Amino acid sequence: MKTTMFYENDYDGAQSTGAGSESMLRVDVRLFLRFLSILFFLLFLTVPPAVSAAEHSFSEDANAVEAAADSVFMLEVYSSRAQKIGVGSGFVAFDSSLLVTNYHVIDGGAYVVAISDDYAQSIVTEVCAYDRSKDIAILRFDNSAGSAPLEMDAQSTLKRSQKVVAIGSPAGLMNTISIGNISAFYRNDGKDWIQFTAPISAGSSGGALLSDEGKVIGMTTATYTSAQNVNMAVKAKDIVTLYDRWDGRTTVRMGSVTGGGSSAYPSIPAATSPGMGADNGTTVYVTSSGSRYHNNPSCSRMKNPIEMDLLDAIERGYEPCGKCYK
Predict the structure, then answer these.
(1) d(Cα 324, Cα 105) in Å, to the nearest integer?
(2) Within a 13 Å sphere around the CA of 326, how many CA atoms are in the beta-carbon half?
(3) Domain stops at, among 237, 264, 295
(4) CB count, 10 Å around CB of 286?
């Protein structure tokens, strides 16, 4: 009889071979898991988190807002007799030689003194294009102020609740920043305006209204004094349309357009002072029985003017004259 024998060593060898396979499998799994962890780590480093865009929005980036303010000017409007007749705002757009504002800001003026964020002053006497019905005027600096043009956004679809930043000179307080939202869209009597909540006041007309991407979507134009934060802006698309109709060369004297008359080439008035409050000695004019302050001592809405510091007038409850501040 043939006997089959199993040797102990052979049996142990069979067992050890199986154990080795299991051990190798465990090693392979560990290497695979380690590879996956490294892969996910690299993906995490190369793909930015979704919240990063919100963290760097224009309205929350103080440096970006400061840079935009460098391209916004306070405008002092003068008659042909070198008498200051109004104060408003304007901003550089399209190229560094052009200044955009509301038509009503320059109405009746012969020239403008544009005051930059660093108090540099530039003369503006030329009008490139204007539209009274849409309240837009595109002006040209007599000598470029050297400010970078703000980017215009005439294409984006605007929606209610979008965050906006307004930059202008309300009540003569130069380049004031305010933040709000688009609240509605106003369409009436040929006007197609953005309604927004960022606070503005008389003197803000012609200022820049920027999106949270830092692009100009409108020009601050009007506010309802009988309501709270009901403010209006001309849309950027209307400004761009007017610019596109200009031939890029032809200009006319401001006084011939606005009815402000003409004069010898103006010089910057020595009395011109940035509207930044008591430290700069900004003087306004009031009357003992009135409720408004004025930047023009000869304003027809005031008799027997009394000099007062701008911030003192604001603290005492005076409001800006709608004729002096536009």
Answers:
(1) 10
(2) 25
(3) 237
(4) 20
On average, the pLDDT of the chain sits at 82
Confirm if 97 and 140 have CB atoms less than 8 A apart: yes
Q: Is residue 38 part of a domain?
A: no
Q: Is the pTM of this model over 0.85?
A: no
Strands (DSSP E) found in the chain: 72-78, 84-92, 98-101, 111-115, 121-131, 136-141, 163-168, 176-188, 191-196, 207-211, 216-223, 231-235, 252-253, 283-286, 292-293, 306-309, 319-320
Q: How far is CA 81 from the centre of its chain?
A: 33
Domain end marker among 183, 206, 237: 237
Query: What's the rounded Cα separation, in Å, for the pair 94 and 247?
Result: 13
How far is the C-alpha of 91 from the C-alpha of 114, rounded, in Å?
A: 10
The answer to whether position 231 is within a domain reads yes
Instruction: Supply the pLDDT for residue 17.
Output: 46
* Residue 225 belongs to some domain of the structure: yes
pLDDT digits (tens, 9 = 90+) for 70-118: 999 999 999 988 888 999 999 999 999 999 999 999 999 999 999 999 9
| Chain position carrying tokens 């109004």 | 86
Domain hosting 183: range is: 163-237
Q: Which residues of 147-157 are buried (b: 16+ CB within 10 A; e: fewer)?
A: bebbbbbbeee
Task: Answer yes or no: is 136 within a domain.
Answer: no
Taking residues 292-308, what's their average pLDDT? Answer: 82
